[in-house]
Amino acid sequence: MSWLAAPLSYIYSSLSGARTQLYTQGWLKSHHVGVPVVSVGNLTVGGTGKTPLIGHFLQWASEQNLKVGVVSRGYGARFEGCQVVRAGEPPVFGDEPQMLANQFPGVPIYVDPDRVRAASRLVEDHSVDLLLADDGFQHLRLKRDLDLVVMDALEPADHYKVLPWGRARENLTALARASHIVVTKVNLVTEEVRQGLKLVLHRQAPGVPVVEAHLVFSGLFPMLGAPSARAVALPLAGQKVLAVSGIGRPQSFAKLLEEQNVNLVEQIIFADHHNYSLKDVKRIGAEAQRLGCEAVVVTAKDAVKLQNFSPEDLGFTYLVTQVKVELLKGAQRIYEDLHRLAGPRP
What we know:
By secondary structure, this protein is an alpha/beta fold. The chain has helices at 2-24, 50-63, 95-103, 115-125, 191-204, 250-259, 278-291, 300-306, 311-314, 332-342, and strands at residues 37-41, 68-72, 83-84, 109-111, 130-134, 146-152, 180-184, 210-222, 240-245, 263-269, 295-298, 318-327.
């Protein structure tokens, strides 16, 4: 396969570019759904920090008295048509939409591979000021008013080669379509990496504002206990912990725990969007017991798929990390754009 990667990547890139041009020139139609749409997307497959960023904007919108809805494809979900994601339910429509629903139960979240249909249904059912389109940068059928593209500072350079050579869905030059570029997890990389990435972005997307963001640890809560929206302070410093994750960037999870002086004795890594089985849970418990750990720590994304196991099945104390995004210098321009799109508030 490796010898085919470069020519296949060229073909994929050419087709992707041609499709974008068809939308840009009006040969293919983008559909407006009646309210402003803000896309939060990326270039690569895998986790870049989109979901925590969406959570950040949902929290901000609530504080600004703005009504916001979310539309998503529902990655990895097994369903047909347009579905509504509700808090506290099993993650049958995708782990990330379910995580957002649990954290923001008052926010309408609709999932559908056809995001135009999802957005239209949501607008029919709810009065909202803005729609956030999760992973919408390449979904050009849905007309957007603001394009936020998320870049992960931990992403290796080779990942920006177009599929299947790398993990990119488009060339870096596609960033020129963005309204803003948000570089997440800059607190988890060296200053050299940080500055190098900024130079690349300014070269590939001249004139597009770049905003940096930190991904920070904000608390823990017991998986079988307190609501996910209310993190509680649980001391972990010095305790022996087994970390378990099925996310796109497990190294960022480990770094966040290490910053809390956690004694991370081992990390079990599953594939992104992994669906946990009873066999997996038994393996985790056995490993934690073997290592003499005080707790198993998981991400909020993994917790939505683990929380439906019984305490007897889990056989161990599970703690869920809560993280948040902190936007740095230049973020005010994004907030101003969001306010402009939402219109005057009462």
